[in-house]
Amino acid sequence: MQDANHIAAAYIALWNETDAQNRQALMERDWTRDASYRDPLMAGSGPAEISGLVAAVHDRFPGFVFGLSGAADGFGDQVRFSWGLGPKGAEPLIRGTDFVTVRDGLIATVTGFLDQVPDAA
């Protein structure tokens, strides 16, 4: 398995990408073709649906960026990391922890948990 921090960084890069074509390139490079994503608020399978989820977050929170909170860790084909989402240069307003299954060095499944969500989000 690739380094857990590398997987987490690739994941965060996708969620920070605002351009659909660039997101597609990141999906092709870092995710399996049948990848799936699921958290308490949304779910999607495959590059088009996952890219749509990312676009929806950018529409809902324009100018917000994702960042890793601490180091990722993992074993076998599993990676775990925490992240924050908020205005660039400010304290994150939303925080979560995601669990990734890696297949052939690529992100195959993501199960996300929301650790902190403001009432207005």
UniProtKB/TrEMBL annotation:
Superkingdom, natural source: Bacteria
Signal peptide boundaries: none
Transmembrane segment boundaries: none
Residue span, SnoaL-like domain: 9-108
Protein name stated in the entry: SnoaL-like protein
